[in-house]
Amino acid sequence: MERRDFTRKALLGAAGAGLLTGCGDGESSASDGAPNVQTDKQVRWRLASSFSRSLDTIYGAAEVLSERLKALTGGNFEILPYPGGELVPPLEVLGSVQNRTVEMGHSASYYFIGKNPALAFDCTIPFGLTARQYNAWVYSGGGMDLLRDLFADFNILNLPGGNTGTQMGGWFNVEVNALTDMNGLKMRIPGMGGSVMSEMGVNAQVLPSGEIYPSLERGAIDAAEWVGPYDDEKLGFHEVAQYYYYPGWWEPGPALTFYVNRDAYDGLPTQYQEALKTAAAEANVRMMAEYDHRNPAALDRLLDEGTTLRRFPDGVMERAREVTTQLLEDNAAGNPQYRKIYEAYKDAREEAYRWFGTAEMGYADFAFPRVGSEPTTSA
After folding, report:
1. 3-state percent helix, strand, coil for the chain, nearest multiple of 5
2. pTM of this prediction?
3. Is 372 within 8 Å of 246 (Cβ atoms)?
4. Bridge-partner residues for 101, per DSSP?
5. 240-269: per-residue pLDDT in tens?
6. Contact 122/257 with Cβ under 8 angstroms?
7. Which of 45, 109, 200, 377 could form a disulfide with 119 if both were Cys (CB 3.0 to 4.6 A apart)?
């Protein structure tokens, strides 16, 4: 699939709806090997999410996909989403799609770096691409082809499935005034961010959303990160932790992904395949818009309720960036596939940073207000 062709079709959702609802005569009668359209074929799939239903924005992307797909196919192609744990455990979504326990999944690929560390690039890496920069790389900069090759090893077709935007640094029951305060800290943090934290002396743990609150409450962990104000407020973290740190340098633009079992996808009529890609593209855009709309008011409410906002010390972030660079290089040294994706990702990041560091940062530095305490400079 050509990237330009994918983008064009994704943006022509309305036109696709007309085509899909206007064809109801079964298989194409062409005898020249034309694709099978079968636009009256009834298809019912199940989708396993890694996220709870209460997290209506991140889980809601699967619902957006389902609703749009049903509309685009005149009700003939339906996907029923299930929250994390109802069909399969939240951290087993990728495997469940790979072995076709379900036809689709929705998750964050950095949960599965134990299967292949290169999966981190499908989601986010510390000091990596922002949401806009990630979409630019995937849709227009060659990233999709590289990620498709990666997921082919799992018999999965990947479709971008949303983004939270730059996340917060999480909730802490202790202050972090210097790098030494990280040593021995027990923190819920997944992905490569967890690997970096481990190198900085943190006891990093991976927990699904439903286990974070009780773990903080009983002191099993000292800190936890999830997403940002809207989701964090829903999960009640401000009730069991005082300090809210920012920025989430390990998640500058974490992308979510729809996993599609390749055999199931190949068995679809061609227009259903295109409808699925179109619906996923809409869900991808909608999630970021929802978070951008909901996070500001949620942060105001958290601050009004007594949350203490803190920025990570420069020394912590400087050390984290050093560790990140070393880990990336180490991972790439013995893994040609990882190296190929990493080099392309790094080039895209450097190019994007030059541009965003000019117009975007120039505007933001002047126009955006400062909220919360200034960082300390202690290492």
Report:
1. 50, 15, 35
2. 0.86
3. yes
4. none
5. 999 999 999 999 999 999 999 999 999 999
6. yes
7. 109
